[in-house]
């Protein structure tokens, strides 16, 4: 089964090395990993802007795969990368299996409170809000309930692993658990 490997690792200087490592793990579990930087199955139209060609190439990759594993480790804030979340939702809408993982063990509320700092305040009812009085999610989940819920509703799992900060983009423990679970579903 071809598996789309969604995640913000594409922004790292060693993205292709990470792709190769993930593809080796996939192969060890009888899966074929497809990384966003791989050549798309069909070349996007050359007359489109570069950013749109990237989008169309990634959409083509997603459509060519039977499942998706998303790296949902918090990216530039307390939540997962927005592009990765879009890809996960897109694959889920296609009715195909999705798995997610995070190399951050803390719950979404704790990360959001840390991110907001003094702007996070406790309400009289015990809940939390930001400086604009918008409530903070407190469900004990890894990320926003739509991410955790979407994975679970699709029959997938959201693996969490507390990786050392210096290795958070290069620790594949939770990723491999997703591969194992996906392979076991086949």
UniProtKB/TrEMBL annotation:
It comes from the Bacteria. PANTHER family: 2'-DEOXYNUCLEOSIDE 5'-PHOSPHATE N-HYDROLASE 1. InterPro entries: 2'-dNMP_N-hydrolase (IPR051239), Nucleoside_deoxyribTrfase (IPR007710). SUPFAM superfamilies: N-(deoxy)ribosyltransferase-like. This is Nucleoside 2-deoxyribosyltransferase.
């Amino acid at each position: 089964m071809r598996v789309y490997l969604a995640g913000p690792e594409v922004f790292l200087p060693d993205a292709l090395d990470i792709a190769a490592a993930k593809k080796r793990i996939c192969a060890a579990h009888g899966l074929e990993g497809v990384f966003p930087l791989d050549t798309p199955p069909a070349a996007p139209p050359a007359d489109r802007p570069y950013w749109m060609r990237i989008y169309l190439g990634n959409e083509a990759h997603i459509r060519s795969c039977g499942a998706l594993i998303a790296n949902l480790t918090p990216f530039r804030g307390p939540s997962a990368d927005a592009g990765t979340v879009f890809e996960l939702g897109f694959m889920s809408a296609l009715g195909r299996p999705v798995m997610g993982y995070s190399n951050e063990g803390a719950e979404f509320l704790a990360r959001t409170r840390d991110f907001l700092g003094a702007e996070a305040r406790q309400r009289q009812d015990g809940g939390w809000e930001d400086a604009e009085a918008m409530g903070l999610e407190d469900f004990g989940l890894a990320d926003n309930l739509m991410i955790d819920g979407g994975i679970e509703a699709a029959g997938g799992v959201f693996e969490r692993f507390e990786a050392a900060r210096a290795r958070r983009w290069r620790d594949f423990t939770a990723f491999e658990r997703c591969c194992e679970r996906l392979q076991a579903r086949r």
